[in-house]
Amino acid sequence: MEQLILAVEVCDTANEIICVPNSVNELFELPFAGFLNRTIILTIFAALLVAAMLFFGLRRRSLVPSKFEIIVESMVTFVRDEISVGIIGKEHGLKYFPYLLSLFLFLLVGNLFSVTPFIMFPVTSRIGLPIFLALVTWVLFVLAGFKEQGFGYLKGLVWPPGVPVGIKPLVGIIELVSVFLVRPFSLAVRLFANLVAGHVMLSLLLASGWVFLSGAGGLGKVPIGFGWFTLGLGIYLFEILVAVLQAYIFTLLSAVYIQTSVHPEH
């Protein structure tokens, strides 16, 4: 906690309770790692954790699976039945199931880093990663649309069927902007904003609570620190729910966008 609060080499704790670093990058860079930074290292770590989880959770088909195997199998079954097949359909859902499963598990692990002791840093709070994942989803559902419908996919967007002729041009423009601009942007920003907001709130409450409890702001602020720290623990539990929910929403919307591309009549 002290490394988070005292993030600069020289800090006047008598006048500044929480010191501000000269550059925010100081909180995330690892000087000994060269070009690597904390985000890249944790992203690779999250990917390796997902791979290990799937390998050790699914490699055996025992009659009496362990608790870990039950948890992994439950998540795999949930993504396959409720998201992939449940939304896209059996014919196309199984085709996109590996991507949706990898996406869900990676986001789940990356988001839960925000409440993992000694890490406390969600990799999805760096905008580059949500943008990349949103673009991958965007490429998939656009390619799926052209593969299943040909140029009729673009025609259906520009000149949507079942819409009165008088407003077709307006609806077409809205659909075109929505599919090619709004969808990837909203996917990325929704994930990024929720994880950043929760992480900042959690860090401020726990950090300031710890400082006040330690007496750095004066003994009179110790009760405030106790309240701040207690509220931070409540936010900590809430952040676990947010981490799981945002992984689910991102994966769910990805499946919905793919479904609208392969089943335009829906």
Give a structural overview.
- With 266 residues, the protein is mainly α.
- The chain has one domain (41-262).
- Helices cover 70% and strands 0% of the residues.
- It is built from 8 helices and no strands.
- It has helices at residues 2-5, 38-58, 67-88, 90-112, 128-149, 152-158, 168-213, 222-262.
- Helix 2 crosses helix 3 and helix 3 (67-88) packs across helix 4 (90-112).
- The protein is globular and about 70 Å long.
- The N and C termini lie far apart (51 Å).
- 27% of the residues are buried.
Short overview:
By secondary structure, this protein is an all-alpha fold.
The tally of structural domains comes to 1
The strand count comes to 0
Specify the overall morphology.
globular
Largest sheet, in brief, is:
none
Distance between the termini: 51 Å
List the helices and strands and how they pair.
Elements: H1 2-5, H2 38-58, H3 67-88, H4 90-112, H5 128-149, H6 152-158, H7 168-213, H8 222-262
Helix pairs in contact: 2-3, 2-4, 3-4, 3-8, 4-8, 5-7, 5-8, 6-7, 7-8
